[in-house]
Amino acid sequence: MSSADPSASPKYKRILLKLSGEALMGDKGYGIDPAVIDNIAGQVADVQKLGVQIVIVIGGGNIFRGLAASAHGMDRANADYMGMLATVMNSIALQDALERKGVITRVQSAIAMQELCEPYIRRRAERHLEKGRCVVFAGGTGNPYFTTDTAASLRAMEIHADVLLKATKVDGVYDKDPKKHADAVKYKTLTFTEALQRDLKVMDLTAFSLCRDNKLNIIVFDMQEHGNIRRVVLGESIGTLVTE
Length: 244
What we know:
The chain has 244 residues and is an alpha/beta fold.
């Protein structure tokens, strides 16, 4: 189905797309792979053509992981702030890639840095969406001890997203690591309770609880296959749906 297909009818009007920083590395092991970020931008551009409003939260693990640094003796708050700064770098890179695809994009940071991006203001973000712009939320929640998964859940609630799309390097949620176990079984659907009981770690517990308590569905899917974001938005059954 081409991006210009007039019969395409999106299932969701407003989505929050959560990207891991590690996903931007490709096979490089560090930093940003231009081909990967170009692929992501192209997929987002295709989805926007359907009339879907898109907000994005991106991690910083391809540049700096606060939790890993704190495990080696760095003060946790300092390490987390450094991780937040890494998300700003990724967000600006993604903004550049999106605008080269013709997607007008605004970056809003939870940590003020007015020379680079807007401060996070919920009503302004909603106005950008109404005007057809993509919004990238940077800087996590602006507070240490919270992950970008939690930032994604929080922002999804605040801007009233219809669904949280968690883009990963695997094609859904499994009962065990599919890279280590050939007999790993993929779940097509899960309830929040089942995911907690089976300790499946779809997202960190704070983020997961936010989605559960506010009845926001999560779809975990493989972002490496081109066109998957569009397929999810059109309602195709790919990945794993976590629902009430």
